[in-house]
Amino acid sequence: MKDLETRADIELLVNTFYGKIQKDETIGYFFNDVAQVDWNIHLPKMYQFWETLLFGKVSYKGNPMSAHFPVNAKVAIEKHHFQHWLQLWTETVEELFAGEIAEMAVYKARNISQLMAHKMAVAKKLE
């Protein structure tokens, strides 16, 4: 298997991952029902987000944390949800790619999931 190398690789990874998310019984409802994600808008943002994180090409502008607070206010996004998200991400990366950048994609996702789980828990306590 090859490593993540191009924008097309990012798109394949993100599309495959969110294809799983949309059907997932544990966290799919956050995207489909609670947030009612418009995938035509969300997916290009995620391409830019991961392209920025993994390749250093600054194409993403936004605050991913702030996008999650309104969802968390409706239905708590708990630690186990983020752990499941990370599990799906890791599986998807490992199904499609191998190498240094692929490992970095998993590492960065782990950090993101831990930080977001913490921030969402704090936000719930402050409500």
UniProtKB/TrEMBL annotation:
One GO MF term on file is: metal ion binding
A Pfam family the protein falls into: Bac_globin
Give the matching Gene3D superfamilies.
Answer: Globins
Cited CDD domains: TrHb3_P
Where are the annotated coiled coils located? none
InterPro entries, sorted? Globin-like_sf (IPR009050), Globin/Proto (IPR012292), Hemoglobin_trunc (IPR001486)
The name under which this protein is listed is Group III truncated hemoglobin
